[in-house]
Amino acid sequence: MITIFTIPRPFVGEFDHIQRNALRSWLLLKPRPEILLFGAEEGVAEVANELNIPVFLVERNDEGTPLVNDALDKARSMAANDILVMANCDNIYLSDFIPAVQKVARAFPRFLMIGRRWDIKVDNLIDFDSDWENRIRQKVAETGTLHHKAAVDFLVFRDGGWWGEIPPFAVGRTTYDSWLVARTWKQGIPTVDVTWTAMVVHQDHALKGIRHNREAHRNRELHGDAGRGGVGHANWRTA
To 5 degrees, how large is the angle CA 164–CA 167–CA 171? Predict the structure, then answer.
């Protein structure tokens, strides 16, 4: 069993159907994972109630943006399972995701599992009938693009104690994923790339100015000289 936790954006505009699609795909994983939501953005409580998912408050910076370190610390203390997934709420997980986690977990007592994502455009709510996964895979085959290996959209880990004190990074404002990966391999913890055994599907969306605003600049300051860390820095790969 695994616990997936995420900090959703407001369920407004295209992020309403995108995030609903992601959450519903996670609920269909087998065995069904525990899911934890963090935040109080518009629509979060309503969707959590609709899908019967618990939601918790999280600390914020002075701009009102949730902080990654607080959500991660709370998830580690609340989770019913020892394997956690820190997930972006725009990614769809398919039936090969949990088997990939299980494979890595059998190989290493402590690990960080990461992978590249496949980008596609999804314009509406997915009909999660019996053939939905085949349709998603077909769309990836026809129009999908494999994202750059520098990006990290999900982190699966057991323990995570090697991170120590995590800086108060603002969620969604770049750099914190790089810090977590760099810190992991510098500590000698196996970092495993599962790109080719678990297809993670990212639903494209409009997002302007995030990498260059004040919060992104602050995240880069907090990152300091920790070193770069992306999927390309994994020292193990599954096949």
Answer: 120
pLDDT at residue 225, rounded to an integer: 80
Whether the CB-CB separation of 222 and 168 falls below 8 Å is answered with yes
Cα 199 from Cα 102, distance rounded (Å): 15
pTM for the whole thing? Answer: 0.95
* Closest alpha carbon to 167 in 48, 69, 43, 235: 69
- How far apart are alpha carbons 211 and 166 in whole angstroms? 20
Residue 123: C-alpha distances to residues 44, 94, 203 (Å): 20, 19, 9
User: What's the CA gap between 147 and 221, in Å, rounded?
Assistant: 25
- Of the chain, the end-to-end C-alpha distance in Å amounts to 22
Residue 23 and residue 170: Cα distance in Å, rounded? 22
For residues 68 and 223, give the distance between their C-alpha atoms in angstroms, rounded to a whole number: 13
pLDDT digits (tens, 9 = 90+) for 47-81: 999 999 999 999 999 999 999 999 999 999 999 99
**Side-chain half-sphere CA neighbours of 203 within 13 A:** 23
Residue 30 CA neighbour count, 13 Å, CB half: 1
C-alpha closest to that of 166 among 238, 75, 50, 94: 75
User: What domains are defined for the chain?
Assistant: 3-237 (3.90.550.10)
